[in-house]
Design brief:
single chain; 242 residues; alpha/beta; Rossmann fold; 9 helices; binds S-adenosyl-L-homocysteine
Length: 242
């Protein structure tokens, strides 16, 4: 089974197209994931079209076409709760001049990502095992990133508490969501106020193959995050801000 290329869909939906090298690397990543998935359950999404839409297209749609992202610069990026490497890995393949940290609390998942990095010879990614609540306090990670990505890790205000400590002033956080409700937006805005963040934009998409609804929420760091955030392990989920 091979991944579809769908160049015209990339063009129509995001006004962007991957290069042949990127297509080859995505294909290689896909084959590696299918192989490993027989031993370790990394993802339920294994059919080529499903993988293309939910892992490749979705990952890229969160970062492409944003005028507040300086594509040309060498951005420092963190993917928080990256799991099997999403959205970080497909983006790292597509933006080789950005530097990525792929963070997850599960050693098993990070070990697998390390295998992928070696197989694909990806030089712009490093991995880190730890909880966002702890890692967000380490001087080598706190306020060090231009861009922080987070998909399927928790509710928006929890994601905000994980994301904001990692961002430099002026840095951008991207929350990948399915549905998006007014109440979540209110909670997120209240959380951001406490964390030194500002809500900038929601982008809504219908995914190109199955017309599923997707939202990308963009937040910006406008003030230093107070030292008490993130709170100790588990607290952000148990007592979400907002
Ligand atoms: N982002 C991936 C994986 C989502 S599953 C995707 O969209 O496919 C959620 C992942 O977040 C799991 O791998 C889990 O180990 C990790 N995770 C959950 N809480 C975390 C925390 N506090 N710090 C770091 N990683 C966390």
């Amino acid at each position: 089974m091979q991944l579809p290329t769908f160049q015209e869909i990339w063009q129509d939906s995001l006004q962007w197209q991957p290069t042949q090298t990127q297509l080859d690397q995505w294909e290689q990543l896909y084959q590696e994931i299918i192989l490993i998935n027989r031993q370790i359950n990394l993802t339920r999404i294994t059919e080529p079209q499903d993988f293309w839409e939910k892992h490749l297209w979705d990952s890229l749609a969160g970062v492409i076409g944003l005028d507040f992202l300086r594509y040309k610069d060498s951005l420092k990026v963190i993917d928080i709760g990256t799991g099997g490497g999403f959205p970080g890995l497909p983006i790292a393949i597509s933006f080789p001049h950005w530097q990525f940290t792929l963070l997850d609390s599960t050693r098993k998942k990070i070990n697998v990502i390390n295998l992928f990095l070696e197989a694909l010879k990806l030089k712009n990614c490093t991995t880190f095992i730890g909880r966002a609540e702890d890692v967000g306090h380490l001087p080598e990670h706190r306020e060090m990133y231009d861009l922080a990505l987070i998909r399927a890790v928790g509710e928006p205000s929890v994601c905000a508490e994980y994301v904001l400590p990692f961002l430099k002033l002026g840095g951008i956080g991207v929350l990948y969501r399915g549905n998006w409700q007014t109440e979540e937006e209110l909670n997120l805005k209240a959380a951001l106020k406490q964390l030194g963040g500002k809500f900038i934009l929601v982008k809504q998409f219908n995914t190109p193959l199955t017309q599923s609804i997707r939202h990308f929420i963009y937040v910006k760091k406008v003030a230093e995050t107070p030292y008490q955030f993130p709170r100790p392990v588990g607290i952000p989920k148990q007592q979400p801000l907002g």
